Amino acid sequence: MECHVITYISLKGNSPSNFLFGTASSSYQFEGAFLNDGKGLNNWDVFTHKPEVISWLVILDGTNGDIAVDQYHLYQEDLDLMNIIGVNSYRFSISWARILPRRFGKVNRAGIDHYNKFIDALQYWSTFNEPNVVAIRGYMSGIDPPSHCSLPFRNCTVGDLEREHFIAAHNIILSHAAAVITEQDIRFVLNVSS
């Protein structure tokens, strides 16, 4: 009979009260639940299901994020473990395909409910994680989805090295500004009505 002893390292009570001890995750790499509860396709779903991507990205075993670590279903275990070790800061990303399965239109309530499990006590937030990576790797070198590129990086089937990464970066900046303005408006309304 095998016996496993699991020991946790905890920072609870060992750090100043203003110390942020955190972890991070990416929705595609953690959530799994591919097309569950009304989720639509995101760019990584499409990207990693293409056979030609597997060959040049060296995804040798052909895996993708369909199951990942299944945080969508096992989130409570993750939150419990974070609590045990004293995590008081968690950076996670939202899969917009889970919120807006068809990119526009009707909001998927199951997606909202899922993320509300994490953000009930939200104090700090950011709009984009690594926006430069999205613009450069997605629209210049073509390494990440949507895999747009042109020579000298690679010879993709789509892409315009002269303009696309600038357009992507510009749109990321505009959407960041819109989100900040919206958040400030929401905070103002909450403060006034409190």
UniProtKB/TrEMBL annotation:
Its EC number is 3.2.1.-. PROSITE patterns: GLYCOSYL_HYDROL_F1_2 (PS00653). The keyword DNA-binding does not apply. SUPFAM superfamilies: (Trans)glycosidases (SSF51445). GO terms for biological process: carbohydrate metabolic process. It comes from the Eukaryota. Pfam families: Glyco_hydro_1. The keyword Transport does not apply. GO terms for molecular function: beta-glucosidase activity. Keywords: Glycosidase, Hydrolase. InterPro entries: GH, GH_1_N_CS, Glyco_hydro_1. Belongs to the glycosyl hydrolase 1 family. This is Putative glycosidase. It comes from Rosa chinensis. The lineage of its organism: Eukaryota, Viridiplantae, Streptophyta, Embryophyta, Tracheophyta.
